[in-house]
Design brief:
308 residues; Spore Coat Polysaccharide Biosynthesis Protein SpsA, Chain A; five-stranded mixed beta sheet; 19% strand; Glycosyltransferase 2-like domain-containing protein
Length: 308
């Protein structure tokens, strides 16, 4: 069985180097590592070619987002040879060969249509929840009234065992690390390239469920996720996230989905402003939070323009 591993890079060579050093311990004959570079300005492609000559680098020439980069690396790789499995892996992770081997074994041994993911931990060893529920419209909207922590409880829910196996399952798992049959990626329809960043994995998972695939977590396959992020600022991240959310709900739920997203985001930001405003005199972080949510509130109302 041959596995293709795809990493997307956008600057941050040091993180990518840490990841590739671990991946280089995998047997060359069964594993192919490719990089999709989103127009890095720090010399990432050249440095990878010099230090990891066994790794294939595709320089995409422009940054069209996470989904397009993964799709393009997949298309270019399959134009040259075939693979049984494909692994989409964040470059800000520290993957052990044992973890990736275990995930491929999960796919080989399962009689069900699964997409396998590891148990993700922070660098200090604490658990990093990567599994989620597909929540109802009411749960989504009422999360505007909740704190980030209490909203997370609703979003995550609880994992449950997959049958009698050690594997755990939830509605979907974010794309820190996905291992799946290559044919599954093609059947589900790859990543939606209209999504620049955020929600591309939830969109894919939503379609995967319709195709009968189950997301599973192997608790014995451990992956360290350092956490990096490509957006330039908290405002850039937030506005990109909100834009992708609007697209996702409009795509899957039509006009009602757009109304749901707009109203949720407007209410969320209004409440954040309301609770933080009295603290602005004494707290710089409160002033920054109010400034951020004022812009997000205007964006939710369609007043503030969005540019990538």
């Amino acid at each position: 069985m041959k596995t293709l591993i795809i990493l997307v890079t956008y600057n941050g060579f040091a993180l990518t180097k840490n990841c590739l050093q671990k991946l280089s311990l995998l047997p060359d004959e069964n594993w192919k590592i490719v990089i999709a570079d989103n127009q890095s300005a720090d010399g990432t492609p050249e440095k990878i070619r010099k230090e990891f000559p066994q790794v294939t680098v595709y320089e995409l020439g422009e940054n069209r987002g996470f989904g397009f980069a993964n799709n393009e690396a997949f298309r270019k790789s399959f134009a040259k040879e075939n693979f049984d499995f494909v692994c989409f892996l964040n470059n800000d992770t520290i993957p052990s060969p044992e973890t990736l081997l275990r995930l491929t074994k999960d796919l080989e041994e399962s009689s069900q249509k699964i997409i396998a993911a590891p148990l993700v931990k922070n660098q200090d060893g604490s658990l990093q929840r990567t599994d989620y529920r597909f929540i109802s419209a009411w749960e989504f909207w009422t999360n505007a009234f909740r704190s980030v922590a209490s909203a997370d409880v609703v979003l995550h829910g609880k994992t449950k065992p997959l049958g009698n196996s050690e594997l755990l399952t939830n509605d979907w798992v974010n794309a820190v690390c996905w291992m799946m049959p290559a044919k599954a990626f093609q059947e589900i329809g790859m990543f939606d390239e209209k999504i620049f960043m955020y929600y591309e994995d939830q969109d894919f998972a939503f379609r995967a469920k319709k195709c009968g695939y189950i997301f599973v977590i192997d608790p014995n396959a451990i992956l360290i996720h350092l956490g990096g992020g490509s957006a330039k600022s908290s405002f850039s991240r937030s506005i990109q996230h909100d834009s992708s959310q609007l697209y996702f709900y409009g795509k899957h739920f039509g006009f009602r989905g757009k109304i749901l997203s707009h109203s949720f985001r407007a209410l969320r930001s209004f409440l954040r402003i309301l609770f933080q405003l009295p603290r602005c005199i004494f707290s710089k972080s409160s002033r920054e939070n109010v400034s951020l949510h004022s812009k997000l509130f205007l964006f939710a109302l369609g007043i503030f323009p969005f540019k990538k």
